[in-house]
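quick one before i forget lol
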Amino acid sequence: MFGSYLFHREMRGTNDKMARKETITIQNILDTAFAMTREEGFENVTARKVAAKAGCSTQPIFRVYKNMEELWDAVYVRAAEFFQDYYSLYPRTGKTPFANLGMAYIAFAREERHLFELLFVSGKVSSDKKKSMYELLNGESGNVVYEINLARVAGCPDPGDLFMKMWIFIHGAACMTLTGDYDLTDTETLALLERSYEAFAQKQ
């Protein structure tokens, strides 16, 4: 009888371990790695740290991902999708071409520092999953194309050139938020973007 008790207790322990393993899914691992990227930075997404955060060993990670590069690729894709959702939900506050795009981009850098660095600054993802800055900005909805068309309708003879000039300014402002050197309010930022557009447009 005692032997039977030990057998059942051992089997129950084995079943418990199996149940715990089954709860660690590819979604759990990706969610954990993405959350770590947002909170701590992409460079902190290592197998050991992800496992510790997810409450498992490294074994489940490599059961669903071939290697860490594959997980990093998945985090990058999730970050790109997150930016697209962020942009689509960002409130439109003006009618000047490129101003809303700039407002959303600068706000994203301020509010999602680590994701911004991963997507637009660091270059730490080198696989075929990596997208150019233009691809990330334009997205599937054609965000940049929409703004370029607005500028064309407004009478700009070379909206593509104007976009490049605006974007150098916008990207610089966004990067300044990473170092704490950008302290303009949203109202001030919008006014600055509108003035910059008018100044660049007049020189064409």
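fyi The chain has two domains: 1-65, 77-204.
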